[in-house]
Amino acid sequence: MDKLVAGAAAKKHIYGATFQVASPDGAFTLTSASGNMALNAPFYIASINKMLLAALALRLIREGQMRFTDRIAAYLPTDLLQGLHVHKGVEYTGEITILHLLSQTSGLPCYLIDKRPEGPKVMEELLRGADEAWPLERVVAQVKCMKTKFRPGLSGKASYGNTNFRLLGSILEVVTGRPLHELLTSLFEELQLEQTFVIQPDETRTLPPIYVKDTPVVLPRYFASSKYDVVSTTQDLMTFLKAFFSGHFYPKAQLQELERWNSIFFPFKYGIGLQKFYTPWLLSPFNPIPDMIGHCGSVGTAAFYVPEKAIFITGSINQTSSPSILFQTMIKILNQL
Question: Backbone dihedral region of 156: left (phi > 0), alpha (psi from -120 to 50 degrees) or beta?
C-alpha cells in the first residue's frame, strides 16, 4: 500500500496522497500517506459533504420530521423560490421535492459547474483564485438566470450539481431550527470526529490549500458561505462511512432503497445521497473492477464502501485536475486485497 500511495504522489501535479482501507469490523485497517500529506493529515473533502447532508436528512426522515415526498415550497420562502424552475415556459418549482434534491433529479442547473448566460463558469473563477462568497440568495438568483435541464422527477433523468444540496441545507435549518454548521458540528461530536470541522467565516484554523495543477488555492470566503464545506481526515471519514452503512442514520435494512441509480456522467451514477462508481465488464473483462458506493469530491477525495470486497476506502490526492489518479490508485489498492 505504501508503494501504491507513493506512486500516486509521484504523478505529475500530485503533491501528496493519503488513503485508508478498513474492514467493517475494524479488524483490518491500513493507512498510508506520501508527499506533502502526512498520515491522517486534514484535507478539504469537497462534495463528500453531500453525503454528510444526506445523512442528516435521512435521519430526519427516519424520525418522521420530514418526508421524501415533501415539496420544498413547504419549507422555503415563496419569494425565494418563485421562478426557480421554469422549463420550456412552464414553472415547475412547486413540484420539486426533498427526494428530487437528494437524488439530483430536480432538473435544476448547477450554479457552480454549469454554463452561465454571462461570464465563465463559477467553478472556473474560483479555481483561478477569485474567492467570493456565494450565499443561498445569490445561488438562487444565479440559477434563475440559467437553463433548466428537465422537468423535476422525469424518469431516468438526473443532473449532478451543488444547487440541490444548497437548497437541502436550508431546509434542514428550517426543519430543525438550527444553523447548518451547528447540525454538522453536532454530528461530528456524536461520532467523535475530532479532526473534522465546518469552515466558518471567522475560521482561525489553518485551511489546507487545494491544488489546481501546480497552483495552491485557498477559498475561505466561498467555503464559509456554503455553511457545509468541511475539512476532515481519512480516519474521520472512515468512521463516518462505517456509521452510515451500519444504519446509524437510516435503518440498515432500508439502505438498499437509496440505490435508485440514474446515470449522471460516466463512470458515475447517482442514487439518494449516494454516488456509485462503476466500470462495465467490457472495459475490464480479465480483471473486473468492483462497484464503489459512497461519494467523491472534485479535488480528488473519496469515501466509498466496496460491497464485493466488504471493505471501506477513503482518501485524497488533493488535486482538481487529475481525478483519474484517485480512482486508479483505489483500484490498485483494492486489487491487492
Answer: left
Contact 320, 298 (CB under 8 A): yes
CB-CB contact of 202 with 220 (8 Å): no
Three-class secondary structure of residue 306 per DSSP: strand
* CA separation for the pair 30, 235 (Å, rounded): 10
Read off the pLDDT of residues 126-167 as tens digits, 9 standing for 90 and up. Answer: 999 999 999 999 999 999 999 999 999 999 999 999 999 999
Give the Cα separation of 183 and 176 in Å (integer).
9
Region of 300 please: left (phi>0), alpha (psi -120 to 50) or beta: left
Amino acid at 11: K
**Nearest by Cα to 49 from 316, 237, 325:** 237
- Per the DSSP assignment, residues forming a β-bridge with 262 are 270
Q: Which three cell numbers stand for residue 211?
A: 491544488
- The three three-digit cell numbers of residue 184, written as one number: 454538522
pTM of the full predicted structure? 0.96
